[in-house]
Amino acid sequence: MFAKVVLALSLLACASAQIPNLGFCPEYVPMANFDLKRFMGVWYESERYFQLSEVVSRCVMTNYTRGADGKYRVSNQVTNRFTGIKRILEGEIKPAASKAEEGKLLVRYTIPLAPETKYSVLETDYDSYAVLWSCQGIGPVHAQNAWVMTRQRIPPGEVLQKAYGVLDKYKISKTFFVKTDQADCAYLDTPATEKPPKKKPEQTSEESGDARSAVALGAVDDEVNLLGKADVSEDKAAPSTSDIPKIIAEAAKPLAIPERILKIAEAIKEESADAGDKMIIVEVKEEKAADSAQDERSERAQETEKTA
Where's the Lipocalin/cytosolic fatty-acid binding domain (predicted)? Predict the structure, then answer.
């Protein structure tokens, strides 16, 4: 008989990684009128029963949520104190069979071949602390587990005193409780967010009007250059520089771009016509000078012949 008890203790210790005890699981009644909706949110593990599997764990936290499908889910996050790797274990909370069992949470985790985990909420104020408890038994041997959960990662002493009062009420020994390392874990609470792109300053109506005017004047200058290159050749004189202020003054008037181009084109044509007239007058004068020179040469030739 003693050998069977020792074997049962060994099996239970290996299976649950907890400290086994003789006897059956105590019948602890969960919290009456437990409200799962108020229990939603993040809870931090402040203290727990010793577990061999959690020796290297730190920054332990649990998040209870309700999905769009109305199902309740739980996400346990544990960070390895040596490697810094965070492990996340998610599961779904099965609905309670009756109102009296609403304080008993039955969780089915998503990892393959994982057994369902059942634990009870012995007491909570929903805002600062919660005491959770579970028990597994094989025959006359059982192993208990308990957690002190808090809303703050590092809770004040008065909050822990409330939780200790619940443990004393249910006669749960604090001998095997160990504190969870929550130091330097605040960076896990606020994940880095992407910086929003900087907004360009909005232009006022005056600035946008000035910009449009500058663009229009630039387009007019380009048109002037093109027309000047097309009309002025090596044999023709370009418009005089004295008329440039007139062109710029006319271009600066608040007219539409096509009208400005037409105005400038007309001015250039007038200048070109004046230059052409001047060229014609010069050519006529040159022809007259050539005729007079030819007449003088012919007269001189005649006089020379008469003298001879």
Answer: 34-152
